[in-house]
């Protein structure tokens, strides 16, 4: 067999393996979102993927390994998403516009991957995922603190930290409601999340971004 054909065979096998892994992770995402991590089983994931349990076990020894692989990939994608959503804000940007843009990016990610919320906030998730979620939360709080500090350089550090925690707390509470609804009702909850965050931040940032205070258009 020519050398080039010998080299192609491992590459083809690797590509097939990667496609199978992606297929299994997609199926796991559906099962975890529908039933929750605790109630999910490898048999259900294999059935959703349209493969035998034996095929699944060629790639993952148990559902914990599947959840860790899926969660790790989503954390990496989420890091990219929040890097874009929490980029430095142009002082000329109105507060509601800055809040809206950030919320839209975060919610778009979570609506595209509802399993992320199901895994990261459900009971009995693998310890490694808990660690990754905690690290992600710390990083998110740090990015929000950095944004607030750049806009409010004279504010006490304790106030900045408290405000950053409140911002994420309001968003996470709203996100749970957003993901629990669909269609027009989901859109309505997204607007409510933006309104809640804008009104919370306006006394602090309203005269620093875009215009002096929150105004309501008749």
UniProtKB/TrEMBL annotation:
Stored PANTHER family: HTH-TYPE TRANSCRIPTIONAL REGULATOR PKSA (PTHR30055:SF226), HTH-TYPE TRANSCRIPTIONAL REGULATOR RUTR (PTHR30055)
The name this protein goes by in its record: TetR/AcrR family transcriptional regulator
Annotation: DNA-binding region: 41-60
Keyword annotations from UniProtKB, A to Z: DNA-binding
InterPro entries to which the protein is assigned, alphabetical: DNA-bd_HTH_TetR-type_CS, Homeodomain-like_sf, HTH-type_TetR-like_transc_reg, HTH_TetR, TetR_C_22
SUPFAM superfamilies: Homeodomain-like (SSF46689)
Annotated HTH tetR-type domain residues: 18-78
Organism lineage: Bacteria, Bacillati, Actinomycetota, Actinomycetes, Kitasatosporales
């Amino acid at each position: 067999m020519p050398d080039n054909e010998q080299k192609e065979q491992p590459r083809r096998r690797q590509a097939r393996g990667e496609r199978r892994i992606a297929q299994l992770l997609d199926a796991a995402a559906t099962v975890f979102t529908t039933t929750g991590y605790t109630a999910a089983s490898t048999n259900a994931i294999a059935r959703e993927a349209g493969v035998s349990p034996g095929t699944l076990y060629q790639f993952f020894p148990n559902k914990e390994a599947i959840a860790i692989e899926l969660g790790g990939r989503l954390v990496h994608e989420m890091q990219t998403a929040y890097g874009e959503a929490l980029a430095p804000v142009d002082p000329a940007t109105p507060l509601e516009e800055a809040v809206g843009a950030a919320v839209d990016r975060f919610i778009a990610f979570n609506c595209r991957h509802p399993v992320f919320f199901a895994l990261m906030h459900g009971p009995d998730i693998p310890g490694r995922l808990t660690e990754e979620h905690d690290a992600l939360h710390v990083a998110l709080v740090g990015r929000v603190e950095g944004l607030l500090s750049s806009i409010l350089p004279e504010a006490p550090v304790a106030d900045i930290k408290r405000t950053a925690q409140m911002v994420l707390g309001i968003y996470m509470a709203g996100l749970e409601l957003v993901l629990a609804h669909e269609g027009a009702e989901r859109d309505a909850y997204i607007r409510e999340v933006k309104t809640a965050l804008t009104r919370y931040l306006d006394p602090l940032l309203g005269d620093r971004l875009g215009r002096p205070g929150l105004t309501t258009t008749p």
